[in-house]
Amino acid sequence: MNSLQKTQHIYEVEIGTANYRGQNLLVGIKKHDRFRHVYMIGKTGTGKSTLYENMALQDIAAGRGACFVDPHGEAIERILGQIPRNRIDDVILFDPSQTEAPFGLNLLEWKDENEKDFLVSEAIQIFYKLFDPNQTGIIGPQFEHWMRSAALTVMADPEGGTLLEIPTLFVDQNFLAHKRKFVTDPTVQEFWGKQMAQTADFHKSEMLNYFTSKFGRFASNGVIKNIIGQKKSSFNMGEIINNEKILLVNLSKGKIGELNAHMLGLILMTKLQAAVMQRASLPEQNRLPFYLYVDEFQNLLTDAFISMLSESRKYGLAVHLTNQYIAQLPENMRSAIMGNVGTLLTFQIGAQDARFLAPEMKPIDQNDLQNIPVHYFYARCTIDGTPYDPFLAKGFAPKKFENEPAADSGAENFELANNSEPVGKISGTAADITAADTAASAAANINADTAANTTANIAEIIKILSELRYGNPV
Ligand SMILES: Nc1ncnc2c1ncn2[C@@H]1O[C@H](COP(=O)(O)OP(=O)(O)O)[C@@H](O)[C@H]1O
Ligand SMILES: [Mg+2]
User: Fold this and answer.
1) Are residues 292 and 363 in the same domain?
2) Number of domains in the chain
3) Closest C-alpha residue for ligand 1 atom 4
4) Which of 194, 242, 296, 423 lies at a 20 to 30 A Cα distance from 279?
5) What is the tens place of the pLDDT at every residue in 142-179?
């Protein structure tokens, strides 16, 4: 085995190939570095979704726990078409458009007081994100106060409470009286007994219309009502992450509309975050790794989720985010991402984003970033915690469905323009990442990991990566 071939077993996940002295070299991310997360950016059609699909499929084939959140639905279809037989029973498909036996998804299910407070705060954040993303005052302190008191009221019921019950509290005295019987929190009792009772009717009705209209948006859609109106969620997020299951989330807006799709995404991600934080009670060695991929993430995650990135490593969560423009993201989210991600992958981007990212991608300049050929990307990787200069790589072509005619040969898809002598798995048709192939390489990882961690190998990789930055696709 020559030194280049050795490199392929160092990575837990492969991201593509890079041209190194005329040879195609597999590049990827080591296990440890994955928990510093991946942020990927690029114009539409450059290959972002395909890259995450390929990575997620490697995780799935290797038996890892993973979640893929797809705002369009096509990626989920492709992933579903390639689940290895031995993992089929691990798949949980969340697809709101399948309305025959709708999934239940209740944001307000809680285990302990900490989780209860967290969920109430997040419920408020979700309303900000949906109705007032720029915090212009549409949702304000009064809304928050009503929401917090009402959420705690429905959550006090030992049978559970849902978001859809919240507006009912304000319009149905009997319902409110029934729920208040369970409330032990004096501030919540005071909200109903004093503040609400004393608020003048005209003011109440103005605020009430405003408050309930926000819920009306969900309650009026039959599909959503059936999902978020169920007291018991159909699946337990803790079980998914702690038992290495595969959660595939199809958020295509088709039947449910964009706002509802965003809301479901936000609820799911909040529940995931809550389950991840519950791992604080597990001994560290029992926190099995879990790999989250969120495509077009900007509408699906709250600020709280993003700021958790710095902590999620210790809970064993590796996050992969992507979107099209940095400018889509609020300032605080941008800096949380830039401050936390270990791996930054940039496909071709526009002038504004290039200006913003160039300092992160040095010595690659703005011009380079705007002229990356399609399906190529610059990768600024962290290796064993240390960031290295970016290098140019090419993503793997999407795997074809079995019944889909192959438009072009797999081998060609992988070849770099000036490739002369492919090495290792990249040569010939073996370049396709088949499930078996990846499972085998993942198995090899386990053994190779220790071997690869010798100083000599790491030094070698670093040397190669530093030379790779001069990679040239043409
Ligand atoms: N490395 C690649 N080689 C060949 N085709 C690719 C590659 N990556 C992506 N594609 C194709 O390019 C198109 C756009 O890819 P996609 O991943 O959907 O881009 P994005 O998510 O950035 O919009 C798709 O048709 C996909 O099959
Ligand atoms: Mg995409």
Assistant:
1) yes
2) 2
3) 397
4) 296
5) 999 999 999 999 999 999 999 999 999 998 999 999 99
